[in-house]
Specification:
Layout (H helix, E strand, L loop, with lengths): L2 H4 L24 E5 L4 H12 L3 E6 L3 H13 L4 E5 L5 H15 L4 E4 L15 H11 L1 H11 L7 E5 L3 H4 L5 H21 L5 E7 L5 H6 L2 H6 L12 H12 L10 E4 L8
The structure holds nicotinamide-adenine-dinucleotide.
């Protein structure tokens, strides 16, 4: 990585939760599965959930060091953290996640479908078939697999929260395949919310705007990172600790009359829907 790009890594050094965030037992006694929970937004959600009294299982692709750090942070909040490593694009791995989480916690009250990836391409023709398939296989197919395995065990009052993106609403000229999967996540959220309403299982999404996480540092060029977030009305990118409280709200009973909705945490970008 170039020295120039390396300086943006400093943006990843902020803690995943504000020191003055006071937990108030909003999720006491709950257990959550969070995909992509080892870093970025997922890590921040894991630590916020732990401060609110929940145990968490985090699913991650390969970064054991990040996963161990998140586990330590969750344990420092006095909660349990189960690490589950593997590739979510595999349906059988999604089944394994549900089995492991159920074996450890006996009940899962909250599922956060958050893992995602993107590759930057300036032209539609440069999106190879392999990339197109991979982006959909990682970003949306596991939402169907894992949610359906866990739903076998979920009950009234439980919640599902999906990570969409501002790109689903305003589009992205350089992440066309990725933005398309995020549009699919919005429709998945709305449809599943209707499907599960009579079971009293709520389904919502969070659509972050530009947030400093490993995903963007790894995928974007130095030039792109220099401009990252500058076009948001607030003139800057956000940090995971500024997004995670939305996941707390949607997970706890304070949002008991909210389902099929998307919370926009975008630094002021107004989007429809
Ligand atoms: P991140 O790199 O910290 O997290 C991505 C996570 O996805 C990692 O934990 C990784 O282990 C996991 N993952 C990727 N592919 C996987 C696979 N095949 N199997 C299992 N796990 C896999 O980045 P982040 O920005 O925190 O991303 C979290 C979510 O937020 C993603 O869905 C992303 O699209 C979304 N998002 C991010 C931004 C942003 O600006 N950072 C904006 C909008 C939406």
């Amino acid at each position: 990585m170039s020295e120039h790009k390396e300086k943006f890594r400093k943006e990843l050094e902020k803690p995943p939760i504000r020191a003055d965030y006071l937990g108030s037992k909003k999720l006491l006694g709950k257990n959550a599965v969070i995909t992509g929970g080892d870093s970025g937004i997922g890590r921040a959600v894991a630590v916020h959930y732990a401060r609110e009294g929940a145990n968490v299982a985090i699913v991650y692709l390969k970064n054991d060091k990040d996963a161990e750090q998140t586990k330590t942070m969750v344990e420092e909040e006095g909660q349990q953290c189960l690490l589950i490593k593997g590739d979510l694009s595999s349906q059988s791995f999604c089944k394994t996640i549900a089995e492991k989480a159920m074996a450890t916690f006996r009940h899962i009250h909250i599922l956060v479908n958050n893992a995602g990836m993107h590759e930057d391409e300036q032209k539609l023709k440069d999106i190879s078939k392999a990339q197109l398939v991979r982006t959909f296989e990682v970003n949306i197919f596991p939402f169907f697999y894992l949610t359906s395995y866990l739903l076998e065990h979920m009950m009234e009052g439980n919640v599902i929260i999906n990570t969409a993106s501002v790109t689903a609403y305003r589009g992205s000229d350089h992440l066309i395949d990725y933005a398309s999967t995020k549009g699919a996540i919005v429709s998945f959220t709305r449809s599943l919310a209707k499907n599960l309403a009579d079971q009293k299982i709520r389904v919502n999404a969070v659509a972050p705007g530009p947030i400093w996480t490993p995903l963007v540092i790894n995928a974007f060029s130095t030039e792109q990172l220099k401009k990252f977030g500058k076009d948001a009305p607030m003139g800057r990118a956000g940090y995971p600790y500024e997004v995670a409280p939305a996941y707390v709200y949607l997970a706890c009973d304070h949002s008991s009359y909210v389902t099929g909705q998307v919370m926009h945490v975008t630094g002021g970008d107004v989007v429809n829907g």
